[in-house]
User: Which sequence fits this backbone?
């Protein structure tokens, strides 16, 4: 038993509990500082993990192989902590819009969701997978419906609850089928078992089980045809929740998807290239086409996040280490980009009744920094150099064409052209947002937007991330290559 | 640091500097932009003068690793193919910055975009790395869309912006897929163009791979260069674009696709290039003849010039399709000459539009009386456009015809007819209607360009004349490197093109 490996997770949960207690002692007008304290604590955890001293830097397995720490989990844990820090900054700015007096609960729920994500990054067993997914999903039910006085938020919460429960039941059914046919729940052992018993690997009940698990994960990453919930929930949820949902929850879905497909059932995955290609292509087209008519900014980002799930699936569909590495690279860029966009939305729209694009009018005069940030985020999402989105898409396309070149599967070329179509479509609505910022009729309220210094810090951090990932890919690419290599072991 | 880094770097640095300049300091913003482009133009002239024709390998080279695991590095260098293009690009950029006085709203953003576009495209021409080649072009392309969308003129602005964005993004992305496929197929595991070419000399790409990649590059780049029938974005786009943008795009950015075909597609995909050459030559007829005819019927001066610029691309494609030394040399010559010419014409129509508020040919007339300098310059541009000897365009077009004659005599005859007759008709007709005849009363208040405003036009005309009278400045540089490209593109059929080398000199010395 090597329980020192989960020190990071224990610290995060402990921190969440401390925040709940702190709520009892801190006067209401100071509660914003609870968030800053949580940020500082997470910052310490991040620094220790970066310096290699933290528990996530010690590689090995624990709990009978259920829990694994490797380069892949390390990458995702750092990503989740960065995302959580940025979300906490956002929540601190958003705190006056959240239900009265319960801000500290909101912070600690974010930390519990973070703990679930950290466990997801390390899960090497279907039990662990299910428990971590449930920890994430159940906390998100609360986080989504946190604005109790707002009907939309409650509606989003109920939708997420019903569809989330449905997908969980699919997943647990799938896990039962896998266990029933193979008697294994551990990913590594399952892979060995399948090599020794190829007849089981091709049995229909087993394959149905794997498929149902993928349905559950497809719900988390909002891939077609399990994407229906995304726009409604993104729109209705409080903006920090939307951000965490778009990044943390999606990334957790992807790390589990990678583990299941490439560690647990690699022999099955190899035959499912066409399925993955089709899902990826439809997701890209669906997300981009549906985003065109949207006027609500968060709803637009909801559809754009579906499209991005499709782009990320390219890295899975490529079935190669370079594809997985590209996926991780793209996710890293996506974190900063989406955070930057939603941060601006939080700051600009917190006083407005809804998040209509027209609310951005005149932003370039009300706050040039926010206008530039949102522009850069949109340009990066559209995949234009020299920003993070471009190099990520370039790597994904390269991986897909590489696989096409090796396997001679023409589906991959079709997929590459679908990406091309998706990117061109997306230019239309991303540029629509930029146009609304700079060139729409000015509203009556032209008061400058004042930014608190933590908000400024967070925005500059996001901008630095976007440019750094776009301009200096070397370091990050080495890290993602290592992480992807851990998967193939 | 290579001088090339400075040529492309100064405009980008200036763009960064402009971000912090307050928007009220209009004079300073404008001065910074003009100064930065002036510096890169001066440096480009210096580089052009120091260039040693026929030296082996690339000159002014610089290489910095960027992503080692993928084999991407920042690698710049010039040989005969791009030395002229960089010179032309830098001069046109300077002229465009000078002509930007017509922009009166949101100047700061405009100059930033203009400088990014300049730096991007000069960098793309200098780049010897596939990744940066594409990356920098894309960096230059996106500002074009924004500039047309925001500072464009006329009622069709939104439609034109939408169309040009869609068309050019699709073109660029198709080319990107082709470039990635090329990188993977080459097996050299590097994005470095000279290394890929070196690798391909011993391990040529499989023919079926070539036949897959070449059309991607041909049509991807073709869309960017307005190859018929993918040209319809160009006339309308240039019609509504603010003139500095039209100058830079039609003059410089558009040559990127052609340069890409010559630099990358011909040497690396020789068999495919040979089998596609005839098809490409047929498409050229579409450019030269069809678009020429369309140009004859235009009622708007800018649409006419936009169409004529598309028609000129046909000659360059014809030169490339002929796959011999004279043809490719001619293609590069026209690329340089047409860059100056397109910039000049769009700058002049921009001046006229600023003064009159319309470019409707029927509404204009007799302008030469009120605008003697602008009128004369427009006349010279029109004459250069229909290939009058003395201007650089004539040299290029004549060279292309010499080269193409051996491969496609019938198409060459059609092209000649298109150049001399159709081009002559629409150009002289436009000149007659715009510059001569009775002067409508409402144009009595027009005023000619003052000395400072004359500078960009004079600069571009002088450039056209210099290369028209001394084409040797270019041909002696282009020749040795075009020779290498053609040798790779045609395999063993070098002997034929070697014997024809003197013909280029013959054309050159006859000027």
Assistant:
């Amino acid at each position: 038993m090597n329980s020192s490996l989960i020190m990071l997770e224990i610290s995060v949960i402990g921190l969440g509990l401390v925040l709940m207690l702190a709520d009892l002692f801190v006067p209401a007008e100071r509660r914003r500082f609870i968030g800053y304290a949580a940020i500082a604590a997470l910052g310490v955890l991040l620094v220790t993990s970066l310096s290699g001293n933290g528990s996530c830097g010690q590689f090995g397995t624990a709990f009978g192989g259920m829990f694994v720490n490797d380069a892949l989990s390390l990458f995702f844990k750092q990503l989740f902590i960065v995302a959580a820090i940025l979300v906490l900054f956002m929540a601190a700015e958003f705190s006056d819009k959240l239900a009265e007096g319960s801000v500290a609960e909101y912070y600690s729920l974010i930390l519990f969701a973070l703990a679930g994500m950290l466990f997801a990054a390390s899960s090497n067993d279907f039990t662990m997978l299910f428990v971590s997914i449930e920890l994430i999903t159940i906390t998100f039910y609360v986080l989504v419906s946190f604005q109790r006085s707002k009907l939309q938020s409650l509606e989003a919460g109920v939708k997420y609850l019903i569809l989330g429960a449905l997908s969980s039941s699919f997943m647990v059914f799938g896990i039962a089928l896998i266990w029933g046919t193979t008697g294994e729940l551990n990913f590594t052992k399952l892979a060995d078992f399948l090599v020794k018993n190829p007849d089981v690997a091709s049995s229909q009940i087993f394959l149905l089980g794997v498929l149902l698990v993928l349905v559950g994960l497809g719900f988390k990453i909002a891939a077609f045809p399990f994407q229906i919930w995304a726009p409604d929930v993104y729109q209705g949820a409080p903006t920090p929740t939307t951000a965490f949902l778009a990044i943390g929850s999606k990334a957790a879905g992807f790390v589990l998807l990678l583990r299941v497909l490439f560690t647990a059932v690699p022999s099955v995955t190899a035959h499912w290239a066409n399925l993955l290609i089709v899902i990826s292509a439809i997701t890209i087209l669906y997300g981009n086409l549906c985003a065109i008519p949207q006027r609500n900014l968060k709803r637009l980002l909801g559809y754009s996040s579906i499209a991005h799930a499709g782009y990320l699936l390219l890295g899975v569909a490529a079935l190669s280490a370079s594809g997985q590495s590209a996926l991780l690279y793209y996710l890293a860029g996506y974190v900063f980009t989406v955070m930057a966009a939603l941060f601006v939305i939080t700051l600009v729209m917190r006083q407005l009744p809804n998040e209509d694009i027209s609310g951005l009018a005149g932003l370039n005069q009300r706050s040039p920094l926010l206008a530039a940030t949102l522009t850069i985020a949109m340009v990066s999402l559209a995949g234009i150099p020299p920003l993070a989105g471009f190099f990520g898409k370039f790597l994904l396309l390269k991986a897909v064409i590489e696989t096409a070149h090796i396997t001679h599967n023409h589906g991959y070329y079709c997929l590459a052209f679908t990406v091309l179509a998706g990117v061109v479509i997306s230019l239309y609505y991303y540029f629509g947002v930029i146009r609304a910022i700079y060139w729409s009729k000015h509203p009556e309220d032209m008061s400058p937007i004042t930014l608190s210094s933590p908000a400024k810090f967070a925005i500059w951090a996001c901008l630095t991330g976007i440019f750094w990932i776009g301009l200096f890919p070397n370091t990050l690419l080495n890290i993602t290559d290592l992480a992807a290599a851990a998967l193939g072991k | 640091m290579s001088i090339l880094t400075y040529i492309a770097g100064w405009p980008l640095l200036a763009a960064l500097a402009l971000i912090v300049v307050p928007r009220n300091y209009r004079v300073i913003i404008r001065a910074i932009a003009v100064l930065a482009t002036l510096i890169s133009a001066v440096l480009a002239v210096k580089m052009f003068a120091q260039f040693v024709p026929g030296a082996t390998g690339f000159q002014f080279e610089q290489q910095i690793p960027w992503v080692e695991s993928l084999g991407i590095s920042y690698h710049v260098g010039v040989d005969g193919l791009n030395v002229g293009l960089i010179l032309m690009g830098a001069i046109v950029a300077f002229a465009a910055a000078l002509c930007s006085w017509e922009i009166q709203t949101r100047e700061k953003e405009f100059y930033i975009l203009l400088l990014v576009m300049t730096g991007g495209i000069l960098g793309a021409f200098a780049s010897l790395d596939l990744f940066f080649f594409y990356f920098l072009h894309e960096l230059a392309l996106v500002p074009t869309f924004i500039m047309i969308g925001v500072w464009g003129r006329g009622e069709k602005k939104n439609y034109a912006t939408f169309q040009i964005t869609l068309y050019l993004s699709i073109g660029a992305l198709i080319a990107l897929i082709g470039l990635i496929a090329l990188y993977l197929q080459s097996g050299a595991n590097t994005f470095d163009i000279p290394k890929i070419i070196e690798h391909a000399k011993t391990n040529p790409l499989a023919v079926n791979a070539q036949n897959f990649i070449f059309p991607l590059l041909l049509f991807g780049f073709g869309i960017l260069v307005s190859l018929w029938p993918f040209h319809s974005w160009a006339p309308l786009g240039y019609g509504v674009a603010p003139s500095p943008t039209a100058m830079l795009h039609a003059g410089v950015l558009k040559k990127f696709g052609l340069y890409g075909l010559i630099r990358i597609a011909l040497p690396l995909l020789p068999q495919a290039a040979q089998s596609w050459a005839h098809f490409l030559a047929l498409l050229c007829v579409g450019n030269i003849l069809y678009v020429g005819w369309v140009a004859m019927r235009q009622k708007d001066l800018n649409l006419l010039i936009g169409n004529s610029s598309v028609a000129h691309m046909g000659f360059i494609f014809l030169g490339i399709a002929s796959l011999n030394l004279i043809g490719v040399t001619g293609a590069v010559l026209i690329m340089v000459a047409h860059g100056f010419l397109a910039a000049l014409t769009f700058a002049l129509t921009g001046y006229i539009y600023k003064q009159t508020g319309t470019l409707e040919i029927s509404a204009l007339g007799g302008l030469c009386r009120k605008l003697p300098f602008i009128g004369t310059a427009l006349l010279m541009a029109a004459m250069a456009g229909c290939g009058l000897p003395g201007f650089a365009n004539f040299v290029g077009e004549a060279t292309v015809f010499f080269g193409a004659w051996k491969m496609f005599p019938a198409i060459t005859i059609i092209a000649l007819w298109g150049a001399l007759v159709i081009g002559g008709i629409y150009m002289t007709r436009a000149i007659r209607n715009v510059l001569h005849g009775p002067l409508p009363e409402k144009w009595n208040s027009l005023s000619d360009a003052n000395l400072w405003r004359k500078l960009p036009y004079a600069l571009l005309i002088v450039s056209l004349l210099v290369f028209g009278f001394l084409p040797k400045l270019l041909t002696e540089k282009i020749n040795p490197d075009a020779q290498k490209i053609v040798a790779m593109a045609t395999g063993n059929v070098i002997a034929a093109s070697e014997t024809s080398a003197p013909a280029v000199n013959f054309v050159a010395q006859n000027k």
In short: The CA atoms of residues 229 and 286 of chain B lie 7 Å apart. Chain B has one domain: 3-510.
